[in-house]
């Protein structure tokens, strides 16, 4: 940065000598015409006389050298300042992404994905403009204006004061408009985030939109957001469109003043005609620094607004993090037992508890299940085990150690989690399955796929494991996506595996095969399953029935049927539905 500023300062130093050389050339040629260097009959004779030719050639060489040095230094400026700003952009973007990866799930629950995306991309690019163009133009404005004003005062202080008369009006105008730009830039960037979120939502749900024939409806909703963005942007564009003409008007007034007052001074023999030309060029040189002031102020305000949004991310507290003395346990030591002690949890901003005063023990290597109505709190409960959220009250123990005392990476590495909403990355099936394991072998990937009962489907594809899937696995069926996600979890060889309703899109035959594998080959792994189908959980060692965030029944399948409570009624209802489906 310092080197770039030095290059730019040197470039402007050479720039100011161009008017000096032009003025000297004009004055010396004019002196030839007055007879100091001899008598000439016409201007043509003056220009092509040997004396004038020498003056023109000598000053032209100086001009060429000066312009050449100015250009070289300006190139060096851009190669230092702009390149440095790109490196700063790289560092800031990495810091933002690193922080976003560290932030707890509650942050993403309370912020729209489109807004988060804009902060990591568009806002970072705008901040980069501060360290690049804004800094470069600011240095350019002050150094060039400083050199020019110094030269103007040296030539004639009085004419300098006359030429600078419009500048106070310019300063007031720039101060007023910068506040307006900053205000509207914040509003526009928030609206842009909303617009990006709407576009992302529409594209990710395009199949649903088409299935319900809601293209026109979604188009109207998008146009409403787009029109709101357009109107706000037009208000800002109106102010920006007035800014540059006003600047040019004030610069034009300065030129007129210089010519008028300079002409009077030439008549009074206070300055030469060359001085007028010199001042006009100086005023022209001031045009870009003053004109860039508008761009600089505008871009600075945009950068400032973006930095405020980025700073909100960087200063966001990380509630779920490792303690300094976090426990590290080897794979052999971890047994997979889970204990909840009077655990309660509610989502940020909610007054109601999603989990209320829950206590239970799960032995390592056992098979347990949670059932209940939709919204009962099953998913909220299991999300507390890998610390996607922390409970508001109570404590959760894994192998007798509070999860807050575990090192996060160690805890999550030993937990295979198949969430309720299956997500596949826009890459190959191989990379999707191997997502949680570094350098997984082909054999390990194939074994995981076979265990999840998806190997045959993959081998039927033309490119097999190299088959590309979309952002949400659009080339795969719902069951294939779920089984691919299960294979991803199994490849980790976890000590605890959580299946959050991850067999809902699988037929009963495939479901039985997957569950049989889990029981036979993962007998030492603690299996925690959430399901709405009794057929998937009836063989579990312990079944917990949850209602309104609390456990109201627990026991084996047969024990719960004997109680004739909520679980038994749920089982009878599903049997009736199966009988009706067969009629």
TrEMBL record:
PROSITE patterns to which the protein is assigned, alphabetical: ABC_TM1F, ABC_TRANSPORTER_2
Subcellular location, principal: membrane
UniProt domain ABC transporter: residue ranges: 338-573
Cellular component terms (Gene Ontology): plasma membrane
ABC transmembrane type-1 domain segment(s): 2-302
Keywords: ATP-binding, Cell membrane, Membrane, Nucleotide-binding, Transmembrane, Transmembrane helix, Transport
Protein name from the UniProt record: ATP-binding cassette, subfamily B
Membrane topology: Multi-pass membrane protein
Transmembrane intervals: 5-22, 55-77, 134-155, 161-181, 242-260, 280-300
CDD domains the record matches: ABC_6TM_TmrB_like (cd18541)
Pfam families, per the entry: ABC_membrane, ABC_tran
Localization (cell): Cell membrane
Domain of life of the native organism: Bacteria
């Amino acid at each position: 940065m310092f080197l770039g500023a030095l290059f730019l300062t040197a470039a402007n130093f050479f720039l100011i000598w161009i008017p000096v050389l032009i003025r000297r050339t004009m004055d010396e040629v004019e002196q030839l015409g007055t007879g100091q260097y001899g008598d000439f009959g016409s201007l043509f004779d003056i220009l092509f006389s040997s004396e004038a030719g020498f003056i023109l050639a000598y000053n032209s060489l100086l001009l060429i050298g000066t312009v050449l040095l100015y250009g070289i230094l300006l190139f060096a400026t851009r190669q230092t300042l702009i390149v440095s700003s790109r490196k700063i952009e790289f560092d800031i973007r990495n810091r933002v992404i690193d922080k976003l990866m560290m932030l707890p799930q509650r942050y993403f629950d309370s912020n729209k994905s489109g807004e988060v995306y804009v902060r990591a991309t568009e806002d970072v690019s705008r901040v980069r403009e501060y360290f690049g163009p804004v800094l470069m133009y600011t240095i350019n404005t002050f150094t060039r204006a400083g050199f020019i004003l110094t030269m103007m005062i040296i030539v004639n202080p009085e004419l300098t004061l006359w030429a600078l008369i419009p500048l106070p009006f310019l300063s007031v105008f720039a101060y007023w408009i910068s506040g307006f730009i900053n205000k509207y830039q914040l509003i526009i960037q928030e609206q842009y985030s909303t617009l990006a979120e709407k576009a992302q939502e529409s594209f990710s749900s395009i199949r649903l939109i088409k299935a319900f024939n809601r293209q026109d409806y979604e188009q109207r909703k998008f146009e409403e957001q787009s029109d709101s963005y357009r109107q706000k942007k037009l208000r800002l564009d109106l102010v920006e469109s007035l800014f540059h003409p006003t600047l040019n008007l004030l610069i034009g007034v300065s030129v007129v003043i210089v010519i008028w007052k300079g002409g009077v001074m030439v008549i009074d023999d206070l300055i030469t005609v060359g001085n007028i030309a010199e001042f006009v060029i100086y005023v022209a040189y001031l045009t870009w620094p003053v004109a860039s002031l508008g761009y600089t102020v505008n871009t600075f305000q945009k950068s400032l607004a973006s930095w405020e949004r980025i700073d909100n991310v960087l200063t966001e507290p990380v509630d779920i993090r490792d303690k300094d003395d976090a426990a590290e346990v080897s794979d052999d030591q971890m047994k997979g037992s889970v204990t909840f002690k009077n655990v309660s949890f509610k989502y940020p901003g909610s007054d109601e508890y999603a989990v209320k005063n829950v206590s239970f023990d799960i032995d390592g290597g056992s098979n347990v299940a949670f059932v209940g109505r939709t919204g009962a709190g099953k998913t909220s409960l299991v999300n507390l085990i890998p610390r996607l959220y922390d409970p508001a009250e109570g404590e959760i123990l894994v192998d007798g150690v509070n999860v807050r005392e575990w090192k996060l990476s160690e805890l999550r590495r030993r937990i295979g989690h198949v969430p309720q909403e299956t997500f596949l990355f826009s890459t190959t099936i191989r990379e999707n399955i191997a997502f949680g394991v570094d350098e997984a072998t082909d054999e390990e990937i194939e074994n995981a796929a076979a265990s999840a009962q998806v190997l045959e489907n993959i081998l039927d594809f033309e490119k097999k494991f190299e088959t590309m899937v979309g952002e949400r696995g659009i080339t795969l069926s719902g069951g294939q996506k779920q089984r691919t996600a299960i294979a991803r979890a199994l490849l980790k060889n976890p000590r605890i595996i959580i299946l959050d309703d991850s067999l809902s899109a699988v037929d009963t035959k495939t479901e039985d095969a997957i569950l049989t594998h889990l029981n036979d080959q993962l007998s030492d792994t603690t299996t925690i399953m959430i399901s709405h189908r009794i057929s998937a959980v009836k063989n579990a060692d312990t079944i917990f029935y949850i209602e309104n965030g609390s456990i109201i029944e627990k026991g084996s399948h047969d024990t719960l049927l004997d109680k004739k409570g909520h679980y038994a009624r749920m089982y009878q209802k599903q049997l009736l539905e199966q009988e009706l489906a067969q009629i």
